[in-house]
Amino acid sequence: MLVAVGGFEEHFKSFYEDQAFLSKVYLHTPVFVASTPWLLYRQHTDSCVATVTQQGKYHVVRKYFLEWLAQYLQRHNVKSVAVWLTWRKAYLPYQNPWLHRRLSEGKQYLSKLRGRLKLS
């Protein structure tokens, strides 16, 4: 399977390399998804995610991954509306930060309103 999907992407060094590889696997091979976790995800202060976040570069790296993913989807002629809508939702904060903030504020407002209505 590693060879069938083209292996890992060499330009992802220590961050998002697993997401890039898994994106390729999910798009090109059948995948079993279990309802319960089989692994533990270890988090610690020296992890790649923690380090990149502390350096203030998390969103730079995430945007790079999402742009790579869009190019990959285009090159492989992925037409799935669900895939593209999911990508678009993930990319919205980078494509239109103002709209993303307004939508987030609206969601927060609706959440608070629902909470208040349930108390009445």
Describe the structure.
- This protein has 5 helices and no strands.
- It has 120 residues and is mostly helical.
- The chain has one domain.
- The model has no long low-confidence stretch (mean pLDDT 89).
Features:
120 residues, mainly alpha, 62% helix
Q: Using only CA atoms, what is the Rg?
A: 18 Å
What is the overall number of helices?
Answer: 5
What count of domains describes the coordinates?
1
Please state the overall shape, judged from the principal axes of the Cα atoms.
globular
What characterizes the major β-sheet? none
Q: Please report which band the strand proportion falls in: under 5%, 5-15%, 15-25%, 25-35%, 35-45% or over 45%.
A: under 5%
